[in-house]
Amino acid sequence: MGSEKSSATSDASSRIELPARLDTSAAAHLHEQLSAQMGNDISLDGTAVEQVGGRCLDILLAARAACLSQGKALRVEFPSGAMVNDLAILGSSLESIATGDAP
To answer: Are 40 and 32 spatial neighbours (Cβ–Cβ below 8 Å)?
Structure first.
């Protein structure tokens, strides 16, 4: 696929490195990555994020809902300042995406 990396660890936790641009062109790939990891705890690495668009935010919120329904965690690690800022502009926040630890 693209240069984005995802890997599963032995404790059923998956890590996805988010791309610089979470815009419409990244939406399908983001959805595929998250869908492939459903059933696992998921950690999103936001270090490289420079832009977050509405379509990818919707996908992240849907992934959060899916994780909550499965009793799994969705975490955002190392969010960039741009990621935090764009989420705020879109009326969202890291807390609205992340589930925290699984129950």
So the answer is: no
